[in-house]
Amino acid sequence: MCKRAKVALITASKVAAIVHVIFAKATEMAARKTIRCAVQHEIAKRKGSRFISAAWPLSGGGDAASVLVKQYIETQRGKFPAANHHCYAYTTMDGRKLCSDDGEPHGTAGRPILASLQRAQLVDVCLVVTRIFGGVKLGPGGLIRAYGAAAQEVIEQAEIVQKVPTKLLYVKTNFSYVDVVKRASDHFTAELVSQEYAEDATFTVSVPVLKSDEFIGFIQTKSSGQVEVEEL
């Protein structure tokens, strides 16, 4: 009798522990947020220096996110060729995080930007702060405050939404089924991350994980299996 009671007690304890872990994980996931679309903002000059911040949502995580980050940095380089620094940070749903001072003193730029993303509980976001030097040095403390303010203010300008887990799909089709891909994207709230048109049309599509099977099924049905779909 005693052994049975003890076994039942241990089992109940394990169940309670499992429920606690599941609840904690669900709470953590629910707290994760991202931004709906790209946003740009410039703070007031700091001793003549301009700080222009820009943030973008990332899709796919991992290596796919790294590729997008590089593209966004190059976008800022092209827009501001006179800039001295393009410092950045990004975080992803799968736990990846990275920051760069891009030539500023160590820890004075990338870390304040990353800290702003983390305080806002944002994931799958890339934030770049571009500095155009104004002729007067700010010192480490001044740089930390300036980069932190630039990051914080652009986040305040962004539309923040709850994060829905997504996966990236590569879609290749002849031009007959381009409309099918676009209709599927609209219907299943997927995002066309990139589009290229050559001999065929190719798309990189960010699809909510829970809708990905339906998305693929819709395309295959409407195209009679003529559209190529691969997970990235």
Automatic annotation (TrEMBL):
Gene3D superfamilies: 3.30.70.240, Impact, N-terminal domain. It holds the Pfam family DUF1949. One of its GO terms (biological process) is regulation of translational initiation. It comes from the Eukaryota. Residues 179-226 form the UPF0029 domain. InterPro entries: EFG_III/V, Impact, Impact_N, Impact_N_sf, Ribosomal_Su5_D2-typ_SF, UPF0029_Impact_C. Residues 47-155 form the Impact N-terminal domain. GO terms for cellular component: cytoplasm. SUPFAM superfamilies: EF-G C-terminal domain-like (SSF54980), Ribosomal protein S5 domain 2-like (SSF54211). Belongs to the IMPACT family. PANTHER family: IMPACT FAMILY MEMBER YIGZ, IMPACT-RELATED. This is Impact N-terminal domain-containing protein. It comes from Phytophthora nicotianae P1569.
